[in-house]
Amino acid sequence: MTYPTVVETNLKGIDLLRRGKVRDVYELPPGRLLIVATDRISAFDSVLASPIPQKGIILNNISLFWFDKSSSLVPNHIIEREVERFPTSLQPYREILAGRSVIVRKTEVVPFECVVRGYLSGSGWKEYKHSRTIGGVALPGGMVESDRLPEPFFSPATKADVGHDINVDEVYMENQIGRDLTRRLKQVSLSLYTLAADYARERGIIIADTKFEFGLDGGELYLIDELLTPDSSRFWPLSEYVPGGPQKSFDKQYVRDYLESSGWDKNPPAPSLPDSITSGTRAKYLAAYRQLIGRELLPA
Fold it and tell me: How many CA atoms lie within 13 A of 245 on its CB side?
């Protein structure tokens, strides 16, 4: 099957709930949502003018793989993934929905990103350099960028509609949503990370950190949104891992590096990407899929 590049969806007669940086979300009563992973890519809080062809299909299928693999740890929100079984009202849009869409349970979203860090990178590294802490918790001295942490670290962050998420400590989280739910989210997040990191490492990929999102419905906790993709995680090739600086990556750091070198001041609008960067980024996403799952998804 040939999958078209999808930058933005417009499903007439279907209520658009929100349009995120990558995903378009539609209301499907009763109590369901249609989530469409487009081929948009964002960096430095801006959606770029240049899409990455079939990126949404790759991300959607990586998420589905992990949702299936982790279902014994926590229920997830997936109801239907096969476009042929979508409601009749969606069948006119089969071509653009195929491979990149899921119907999910609508939940009350927990207003925190449940970040788990296994390695010292990103905002965690910035905080450590300043105070030898992550989320206010002291770490051993003498660590370097990209070092493996003594154990996986739960590091929640607030969910920001605009701008960057803000790292917080567990006490702040408990004060907002309660101690019991915070402890449950921490336990599940650490279990999910351990499961995924062990599996990925056997296949030559380090999951340096990732974020999980959760929702509640009828008192039940559900794993939602995307899961353990190169957009929500730092994936590093194990064979090239050398602590002491930034690592080569399967994620969109490739795009960030280009933008950093382009002279862009990081204020919208973002510049377009050259074909070599879009094709190279697509190849990195496909390589992550192939290495994790062990089969081809799309032609190279």
Answer: 3
Q: What is the mean pLDDT of the chain?
A: 93
β-bridge mates for residue 210, sequence order:
116, 233
- The residues that bridge with 167 in the sheet, in sequence order, are 157
For domain 1-106, give its CATH number from 3.40.50.720, 3.30.200.20, 3.90.700.10, 3.30.460.10.
Answer: 3.30.200.20
Query: Are the C-beta atoms of 13 and 89 separated by less than 8 Å?
Result: yes
From the number of C-beta atoms within 10 Å of its C-beta (0-12, 13-18, 19+), residue 194 rates as middle
Q: Are 169 and 135 in contact (CB under 8 A)?
A: yes
Residue 71 three-state SS: coil
Can you tell me whether residue 215 is helix, strand or coil? strand
Q: How far apart (Å, rounded) are the C-alpha atoms in residues 151 and 149?
A: 5
Separation CA 219–CA 221 (nearest Å): 7
Q: Is the full-model pTM beyond 0.90?
A: yes
d(CA 162, CA 166): 11
What six digits make up the tokens of 297? 């998804």
% of the chain with per-residue pLDDT over 70:
98
